Amino acid sequence: DAMQRVSGMMNPLLESVAVLQGSRLAFRQWGALVDPMTRQMAFDFELSTATGMAVVRKNGQEVSQNHGELHEMFLRAVRLEDIPGRVEEAKSVYQTILEIQPGHAAAAINLGTIFYNEKEFAQAEQRYRQAVAADPEYALAFFDLGNVLDEQQRMDEAIEAYQRALALVPQYADATYNLALTYERIQE
Fold first, then answer.
1. What is the dihedral of CA 12, 135, 159, 123, to 10 degrees?
2. Which phi and psi angles does 180 have, rounded to 5°?
3. Which of 83, 103, 101, 104 is nearest to 31 (CA)?
4. Distance (Å, whole) CA 134 – CA 43
5. Contacts of 6 (CB under 8 A, 6+ apart)
6. What are the pLDDT digits (tens) for 66-104?
């Protein structure tokens, strides 16, 4: 239940990989490790390509043969984002992933967030919309889309995006807060 509330996945036991993290159970989806009880992202110190990682079929789709390579590229891009002066390289890796697999929602979101932070709102919106199209059950994609629409003063669309995120994950506190702020801005 906690995994469903946090991730917005219909069936998290089929759509993610369960990972033992100390005495707790976390789950991995598209390269991110999440503790469903605390709703926090976690750094996966145990991830090792030498030992391999379970590959999950999402929504019944076959996993492509280059899934492992794309996963490694994604993790490399995530690491590059944290290194000062390497954001452009991370952008390039995310763009390569999206050229290979346009439906890689996590890469689209991360690239969109880089554009958002650079105040390139049109490009950020394009990537968030790509993530929403790739995975219409991914609450974070709708939340991020709401944020960029809010920045562009497109309040009705932002409200719709936040409401969609909340429909997927009703306990999404950040989406609730941003939705309230958006209503406040339009005097409702």
1. 140
2. -60, -45
3. 104
4. 25
5. 34, 36, 39, 169, 171
6. 667 888 899 999 999 989 999 999 999 999 999 999 999
Give how far Cα 71 sits from Cα of 27, 105, 123, 151, 169, Å: 16, 12, 23, 31, 25
Digit-coded pLDDT (tens) for 113-158? 999 999 999 999 999 999 999 999 999 999 999 999 999 999 999 9
Tokens coding 102: 């346009």
Residue 118 CA to residue 31 CA, distance in Å, equals 23
Residues 6+ apart with CB under 8 A from 93: 73, 74, 76, 77, 80
| Rounded Cα–Cα distance for residues 165 and 171 (Å) | 10
Amino acid at 173: A
Among residues 1, 19, 21, 18, the alpha carbon closest in space to that of 10 is found at: 1
Count of other CB atoms within 10 angstroms of residue 45:
8
